[in-house]
Structure formats: C-alpha cells, structure tokens
Amino acid sequence: MKTSRVPDMLATLHLRAFHVIRTGTLSIMAAALIAGCGGGEGGPPGGPGGPLEVNVLKITPAPATLTQDLPGRTSAFRVAEVRARVNGIVLKRLFTEGADVQQGQDLYEIDAAPYQAALDSALGMLARANAATAAARSREERYKELVATDAVSKQDYDDALGSRRTFEADVLFAQAAVQTARINLGYTKVTSPIAGRIGLSQVTEGAYVQESAATLLATVQQLDRIYVDVTQASSEHLRLKSELANGRLKADADGQARVSLILEDGSVYPDEGMLEVSDVTVDLATNSVMVRALFPNPRGELLPGLFVRARLEEGRSPDAILVPQQAVTRNSKGEPTTLVVGRNGTAELRVLRISRAVGAQWLVTAGLEPGDEVIQDNLQRIRPGTPVKVAAGAPLQPNAGASAGN
Q1: Which residue range forms the structural domain that includes residue 154?
Q2: N or C: which end of the chain has fewer CB within 10 A?
Q3: Can you give the pTM of this predicted structure?
Q4: What secondary structure, in 3-state letters, does the chain show?
C-alpha cells in the first residue's frame, strides 16, 4: 500500500509547481504591458518622454486683399445685326466670313435698278414742280402790280397768290420724294455700322430680302474690348457694402474695383479688367444681382459666350488673421475649432468664426487673438489639456499681404 501512494504524491507536487510558474509568468507579462503603456491612467498624457513637441503658427494680423470668384460668361462690347432695309435680290457678298471689317465697309449689294428708277422719277417730279412754281411766282408778281392800279380784281390776285403757294408746296413734296428715293438707293449698298469681326453670312447671292421682315444678313461684333457678365448673390452684395462702410475693408484709392479673369482651363487671363456697373434690380428667381466688368482683348483671345470666372477685388483687410485649413477641425455641433498652446503649457481648444477660404487658409474673424500659437501637427494625438511644448526653432508666420478669395 505504501509503495503505490508515492507516485501519486509526486504527480500532485509537479502539478502545483506548474500552476505557480504559470501564474508568475502572467504577472510579469501584465506588468510589462502596463509599463509599456506609460504607467497606467495616472501617467502624463505626453508619455514617459514628457510634453509633446508641436509646430505652431504664431498669429500675427497682416494686410490681405480680399477677392471673390463669380461665374459668368463673356459678351461682345458692341453687337450690330446687319439687316435688309429695302426689298430686293442680293447680287454680291463683299466680305470674307470671320474677317475683321471697318465701319462703313460695303458688305452686300442689292439690286439697285428699281430704286434708281424711283430716284429718276422723283427728280422729274421735282423739276416739274419747280417749273410750275416759277410760272406761278411770275403771275403773282404781275397781279400784285396790277391790283394796285385796279387793273385786276383783288380776287384775281388772291387766286394767283394761292396758286404760287400750292406749287411751292409741291416743290417741297417733290424734294422729300427725291430724298426718300436717294436713301432707298443707298440702302442697296449694305455697309457695316461698326468696326469689328463679322460672322457667318445668313444669305447668299440670289436671295430675296425684305424690308418688312428685316431679313438678317450678318452680325458684326466689336471684340477689341469684351464684357464679362457675372451674377453675385444679393447677400454678398450687401455684406460687401457693409464691410466697406464700417471700415473692415478698404477700397482702392481711385475707387475702382479691379477684376481678374480665370479661363475655362484654369489659366489666368493676363490683362486686368475694371468693374463697370452693377444692376440696380435683384433677380427674383435667383436672388442675385448682375455685375458687369470690362476687359481689354487686344489679341482677340476672348470670344463671346465663353464660360469664365471673374475674380473681383472687394478691398483690403488691414488686419486679417489667416490659419491653415489643416489646423482647423469641427466639433460635434459643426463649429470650426482649433488647438492653441495655452498659458499653462497645455493644449487649449478654441471655437472659431470663419469668413471664407483663402486658398489653403481660412480667414478667421473671431476666436483667435494676436500672439496665439496655433498647433499645426500631432493633432490626432493631442486632446484639450495635453501637455505640449513648442518645437525648437522660430514659430511659423502667416503670409503677409495674402490675396484672399473664395
């Protein structure tokens, strides 16, 4: 009996020893994991190395030119629709489609034979009226002398005077008929009313054109200067006036608003334009105001109908605060926020008020003060209250004199 109990006792001792070893090993591993996590909840947020080093942007207000990008389309400076002013057959087209034409240049020739005949007829009527008037004038003058000596009656003299005045009226009527005939004859030579570039011809030789239908022959557009018509929201229009009035924006010394142009391919048009006029009525359908700018077009690059974006200079903000967009996040309410280095060396959350985007920056109107240091990196590791320190080197500075647009 004693011999059979010895192996059982040895097995029990081995099992207890295994449990002791396993328990000790697990305790050591747990302690190592706790040490690797910074010593538990009571350790500093910055880790065993102390506060986190961060790069900051020191807020320094600087002047900035504020702009606004508005979509629009180009239109010709002047447009003249060349239309028929007499009836007739088109005999010749005297221009090349798409070419530049001068004011007064002949464009079409309409059959002039009927109008030449009408002029000749009117001239004949005028000659007859002049001859009749001359005879009536002589008779009236003779009767005037005779009535003084009672050689003719007063009634005969009155009849002679009335006849003279009637023929003089006929002369005026004939002169008007001659003038009308000359005008119509002149209309058979269709000329360009303005200098510019002519488009496609709407008629060919042999076509019959009508004065009553005002048949369109061609269109001439002046393109050495060109308009850009854009729409601006009425709220933006009011905001701009308010900021200029209270001094937050400063207009140019000459009072003229400068405008630059961004083409469809994203390139910037080399010539600067001027704001010409703003419409005086708000469009009820779009709640917007039409704004027109004028651009030089010496090389003929701009054509009517192009879709463009006009960048309007609204004015200058003398003390703009600009913050990189990557340094701004939003809280659960959707408000823009940023982290700054607080006085006690910890991260401090600030709620901002943002006016607009300025390239890769935000224009901040509230929430930051000059001298604040905005944290720009390690934002995913930092929470409000986390100890931080500014990295060695000078803080980053904002771009002075930036051009602000939206």
Answers
A1: 84-220
A2: N
A3: 0.64
A4: CHHHHHHHHHHHHHHHHHHHHHHHHHHHHHHHHHHHCCCCCCCCCCCCCCCEEECEEECCCEEEEEEEEEEEEEEEEEEEEEECCCCEEEEEECCCCCCEECCCCEEEEECCHHHHHHHHHHHHHHHHHHHHHHHHHHHHHHHHHHHHCCCCCHHHHHHHHHHHHHHHHHHHHHHHHHHHHHHHHHHCEEECCCCEEECCCCCCCCCEECCCCCCEEEEEEEEEEEEEEEEEEHHHHHHHHHHHHCCCCECCCCCCCEEEEECCCCCECCCCEEEEEECCCCECCCCEEEEEEEEECCCCCCCCCCEEEEEEEEEEEEEEEEEEHHHCEECCCCCEEEEEECCCCEEEEEECEEEEEECCEEEEEECCCCCCEEECCCCCCCCCCCEEEECCCCCECCCCCCEECC
